[in-house]
Backbone:
């Protein structure tokens, strides 16, 4: 018995000593929704190539990811590297939380292999490069071909057509007096700004930083409000619906259309087979707007071993590894070679993404963007949907936020 | 008196002085670890919060810590969301606690009766109280779900409603739905406390009352209620403070939405500080709420003081 204890203790010590023998440790924060998390495989492969570096990767829940990251930065306990989105960049740069990666980038072979323009798109507000892209998506319209065929409908290309089609698709299919299918699954909770933006920011002269309170801008918000209040084409739970709800409702046949990106395509195909297709979002107010969903990695300013940290993040954006990474997230690789050999998603979804690229835009590189995404948009939109305030008031509040 | 006796007496005096000193110091020595920990993890952050509330302190500009005096408080008092949150907080506390108390009282009275499987029932009743808040919140989000929730299914089948109600997405129902959840979560605490109080009432009182011909209602009014009044009062005060401070269930269920329909003051302070990173303003809201709550705390301390004396 005693001998067993001693043996156990000795092996524990040996393990600790083995772990501690690595020269540096890279603490990495990321967020994956996918339960089949391939991060361990990537880490094992990386550590085999770099025996002097240990990677401690931590999957942080998405809902509180940025709350935790900012608090950790302030508390002096930030990770060495983190997955980051563009909307957070101005704030992180202002906090002095990021390290410029320009010097490493200029010496890195992989830089030329990245998709064109991605480094320009992710450039920092002060001209330095802080972000290294790791995946991207573009939002488009998902729809159920069978429901469209049954009613003889065409996929809408303008907001006017969208409204007509959504109204037709909203119906009681079994005659019990209850609506069984709704035209569109609208995301009224946090993260739904992309839906609203597609209906609002396409209008000429309207953006988050300019012209939002104009007649054209308000018309977009009013359009969304009318779809819910007058037409009833969103499920009644729309004001509180988040990602899980809109995707769940679409898969269950409760909604006929919704907006999301290729990240959910495989799950949809698994649930619906061929009965799910994609198209670019409709043109509203004379133009189209869809969200370019970015994800990068960054070396944090407090990284203990910046060189090792850079090695790790550049590893994730290198040929082959980037494909493995994106197979888990279900998004699209940033490395051209991985993109060319990409076969993870059915072609129709890749096509919708490519077709949407020309008018895909990112949220403004402003300090106000984080508040817009996290609190201002969700509360204002919910208030409009539930009739608490008018569309104009919402647009004015957002315009004021960006004007500050 | 001989020399020997004098030496003996002085030694005895010294010993008794040392014993007295020891007795005086010992309680402080024993209490000091707990006091020190409380000072470090409760009192220090409290002072820090009060200090931050007097500054313009936004976390993503960590180097700016400008003194603004009472500006944050002035902003709060003219902030529409502050008043909406205060109103919701009053409704929320004013209905949740009496509902928990009533349900707890009825449950305790039932559990005090003789029936088979009583120990099992007593153990089961504690489940809502023992479950983590996040689990409760997620469970009830599913119960209230407008597409698949059992609440709608049940009411539709009973013919009580004609259309599914989006319980948490409709501002008219959202707060009430959360209050129901919190009532369910908190009533076992009252049930257990009141049950303990009930068991402390001597059976002979009831026997005497029965001999005098007192009805069950009069027995309840004149024996049971006075017997458990003290326990009930303490439980209500404790629960007031706990409920006032908790926002986890609301945060998980609605995040304060739709709009501001389920915003309460602690939740608003949390969102301002943690999501918007505006620690100055968030602290000011927390301080204002603490001052309101202080009235309850003072009342509680006076009560416990009386009980001790």
Residues:
């Amino acid at each position: 018995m005693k001998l067993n204890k001693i043996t156990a203790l000795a092996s524990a010590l040996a393990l600790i000593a083995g772990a501690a023998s690595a020269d540096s440790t890279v603490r990495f924060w990321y967020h994956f929704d996918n339960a089949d998390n391939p991060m361990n495989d990537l880490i094992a492969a990386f550590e085999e190539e770099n025996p002097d570096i240990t990677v401690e990767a931590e999957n942080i829940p998405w809902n509180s990811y940025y709350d935790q990251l900012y608090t950790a930065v302030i508390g002096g306990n930030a990770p060495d590297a983190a997955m980051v989105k563009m909307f957070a960049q101005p704030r992180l740069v202002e906090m002095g939380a990021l390290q410029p990666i320009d010097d490493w980038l200029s010496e890195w072979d992989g830089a030329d292999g990245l998709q064109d323009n991605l480094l320009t798109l992710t450039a920092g507000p002060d001209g330095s490069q802080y972000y290294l892209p790791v995946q991207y998506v573009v939002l488009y319209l998902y729809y159920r071909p069978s429901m469209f065929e049954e009613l003889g409908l065409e996929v809408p290309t303008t907001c006017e057509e969208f409204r007509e089609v959504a109204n037709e698709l909203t119906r009681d299919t079994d005659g019990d007096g209850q609506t069984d299918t709704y035209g569109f699954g609208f995301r009224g909770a946090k993260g739904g700004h992309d839906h609203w933006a597609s209906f609002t920011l396409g209008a000429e002269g309207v953006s988050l930083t300019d012209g939002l309170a104009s007649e054209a801008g308000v018309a977009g918000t009013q359009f969304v409000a009318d779809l819910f209040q007058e037409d009833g084409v969103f499920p009644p739970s729309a004001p509180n619906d988040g990602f899980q709800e809109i995707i769940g409702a679409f898969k269950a046949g409760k909604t006929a259309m919704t907006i999301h990106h290729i990240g959910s395509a495989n799950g949809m195909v698994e649930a619906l087979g061929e009965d799910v297709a994609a198209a670019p979002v409709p043109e509203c107010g004379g133009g189209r707007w869809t969200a370019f969903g970015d994800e990068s990695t960054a070396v944090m300013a407090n990284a203990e071993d910046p060189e090792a940290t850079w090695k790790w993040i550049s590893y994730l954006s290198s040929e082959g590894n980037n494909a493995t990474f994106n197979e888990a997230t279900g998004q699209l690789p940033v490395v051209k070679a991985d993109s060319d050999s990409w076969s993870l998603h059915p072609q129709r979804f890749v096509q919708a993404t490519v077709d949407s690229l020309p008018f895909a835009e990112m949220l403004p590189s402003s300090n106000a963007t984080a508040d817009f995404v996290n609190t201002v948009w969700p509360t204002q939109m919910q208030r409009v949907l539930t009739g608490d305030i008018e569309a104009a008031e919402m647009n004015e509040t957002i315009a004021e936020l960006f004007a500050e | 008196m001989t020399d020997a006796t004098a030496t003996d007496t002085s030694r005895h005096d010294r010993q008794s002085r040392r014993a007295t000193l020891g007795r005086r110091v010992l309680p402080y020595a024993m209490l000091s670890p707990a006091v020190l920990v409380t000072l470090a993890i409760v009192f220090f952050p409290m002072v820090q919060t009060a200090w931050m509330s007097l500054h313009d302190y936004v976390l993503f500009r960590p180097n700016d810590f400008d003194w603004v005096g009472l500006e944050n408080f002035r902003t709060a008092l003219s902030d529409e969301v502050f008043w909406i949150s205060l109103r919701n907080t009053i409704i929320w506390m004013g209905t949740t606690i009496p509902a928990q108390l009533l349900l707890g009282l009825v449950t305790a009275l039932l559990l005090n009766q003789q029936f088979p499987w009583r120990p099992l029932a007593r153990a089961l009743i504690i489940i809502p109280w023992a479950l983590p808040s996040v689990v409760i919140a997620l469970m009830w989000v599913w119960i209230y779900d407008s597409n698949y929730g059992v609440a709608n299914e049940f009411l539709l089948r009973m013919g009580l409603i004609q259309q599914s109600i989006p319980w948490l997405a409709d501002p008219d129902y959202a707060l009430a739905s959360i209050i129901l959840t919190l009532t369910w979560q908190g009533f076992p605490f009252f049930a257990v406390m009141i049950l303990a109080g009930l068991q402390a009432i001597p059976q002979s009182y009831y026997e005497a009352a029965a001999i005098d011909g007192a009805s069950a209602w009069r027995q309840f009014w004149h024996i049971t209620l006075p017997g458990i009044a003290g326990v009930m009062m303490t439980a209500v005060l404790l629960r007031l403070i706990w409920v006032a401070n908790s926002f986890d269930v609301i945060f998980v269920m609605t995040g304060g939405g739709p709009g501001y329909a389920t915003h309460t003051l602690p939740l608003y302070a949390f969102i301002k500080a943690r999501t918007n990173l505006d620690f100055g303003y968030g602290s000011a809201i927390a301080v204002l709420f603490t001052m309101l709550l202080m009235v309850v705390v003072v009342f509680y301390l006076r009560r416990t003081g009386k009980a001790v004396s």
Summary: The interface with chain B takes residues 67, 70-71, 74, 91, 94-95, 177-178, 188-190, 235-241, 249, 252, 254, 367, 371, 374-375, 378-380, 382-383, 385-386, 388-389 of chain A (CB under 8 Å). Residues 140-291+361-403 of chain A form a domain with the D-Maltodextrin-Binding Protein; domain 2 fold (CATH 3.40.190.10). Chain A has a mean pLDDT of 89.
